[in-house]
Here is the input.
Amino acid sequence: MTIGFELTPEQRDLQALAVKFAREEMEPRAAECDRKGLFPEDIYRKAWELGLMNLNVPTEYGGSGLPLLDQCLITEALAHACGGMTTSILANCLALQPINLGGTPAQKERFLRPFCAQYHLASFALTEPSGGSDAGALRTRAVREGDTYILDGEKCFITNAPHASLFTVFATVDPQRKHEGITAFVVPRDSPGLTTGRDEDKMGQRASSTSTVRFEGVRVPVENRLGAEGEGFRLAMKTLDSTRTPIGSLAVGIAQAALDHAVRYAQQRTSFGKPIAEHQAIAMKLANMAQGISAARLLTWHSAWLVDQGDRATLESSMAKCFSSDMAMTVCDEAIQIFGGYGYMRDFPVEKLLRDAKLCQIYEGANEIQRLVIARELLKRYA
Amino acid sequence: MHLIVGVKHVPDADTRLRVDPSGTTYDPDGVKFTINNTYDEATLEESLRLKDGNPGTTVHVVSVGPPRAEEGLRAALAMGADEATLVEVGTGTELDPLLTARLLAAVIRGIPHDLVLVGRQAADDEAGQVGSALGHYLGLPSAGYVTGLEVDPASKRLHIKRYVEGGEETLGMEFPAVLSILKGANDPRTPTLPNILKARRKPLRKVPVGDLLPALETWPGGAKPTSRVTAFQLPPPRAGAKILEYTSPEEAAGKLLAALREEAKVL
Here is the structure.
């Protein structure tokens, strides 16, 4: 099969829709939401109305049913305007993916269709206060009692949790069994005993909302269990395998915004009688930034393409996520440097980009874990 | 009810135009095109509202233009039109507003139509002639500067609001008819993602201009343009800004007020 980099007319249309939405709806509000930590639910509602949410849910259940590459194009375009808002818009894809991958047709019908028919937010609840990267050691308990499970425990750093109407929750039926005890459940928000904590005061991505979720004797019917007992860990990993790549795209979008700001500023700001873009020190920076962005974008495209071909893309999605987010930090850092003192001021847009980019190195599998995964996959090939 | 909407693929308002070497038009090279000229978008929105409010109504978009105009029609399909026809012209084909109207009329005659709606004028050449000429060539009544309309499909009657200098006129008409829609009549919808995907699967027919021209030979005006652009110029570059020197904010404000009053005469 030949390698092609040209987008289809359809993909260009989807990209144009996302660019328009980002420019007209998200960008004008990004600075204010960042400054005040606002959760612009009207924007998220509009995103849903246009079909920019639930991108990975099959159309028969009311989602957009897009290939991962198309999802990545949209993600990058949205993130160019605001990384935080993009995280909140994407959170449904992450939260619903375990249902897509592990739900029975009846469960999909029951959970996905009504969820997608209206504006709703969902949260993916895996991480716990005692450890994020060591997901196998999670402590939230699920104890079976007849036809229900009783959930007890606490999750933290859960995106959109204060506003979510549905949670996909990972809990263990037997802590002794480690990974083999982890089981996935769909838990509606109105379940008695489920409470969310205060909205976290984050460094960046402040237009997104993050909180803890507590489960105190929450009764979940057996019909809400995804897959069998003990299949939860694999389901979580499979989910993250397919949602990791868009995080790379999110980072690329933030980095591209930083480069765009930096180039425009460097062409306009003069020192020593010429635009600073013509000074080699600055020109080299711009060149390096552009290279990093292009390389990262191609990694995300390649990884998404593999997933769309039905291939396992653990290595490539880890590379796309890890490389893109590290690259975004470097690019945003350089953008601030090019802006000089102005870049350090909140009146200018670039310092926000750095704060937003930072999260991409941490969430959906910290970059240290990504490197472990990459190394493990790499070593397998030499075994 | 069958609605026909005429659209034109025009340069995006943000694009920077250059005069082409012939000196009679702009150079399309590197220009971003769109149907997002306010008049056509408003017209399409008006027709889609009629479709939403009257079940069974179809919207068929037509355009005369080069192959790239297909993208404009796809955008109209993504907004919600049902099908599209492109009268495809080569880059060398000379058109004027009246020949465009004759080509549109020739193609519209072959499509069921109760109402034909066009934007009041195209956002590029702003000729504003196609609407009334189309009424003439189709032998239908027409109205321009339309800002709102209500349709009663049962009695085949229209109630039209028209902009007139300093006020508004309400007009009763029978259809079929041709209407030119003024911009600002409504807020055009953004295509949703599912509709964008659907748009690629909706029928889009291409009619080579050569298939229509022979029949136009016998029409008044014939198969050739009857007017020709002889020169095309960009506006002269604006004179440089005047910088006021000052030592205090009060002095700056005083000098600025004086300049606005006495030199610019805007106050």
Q: What stands out?
A: The mean pLDDT of chain B is 89. The first strand of chain B starts at residue 2 and ends at 6. The longest helix of chain B spans residues 38-53.
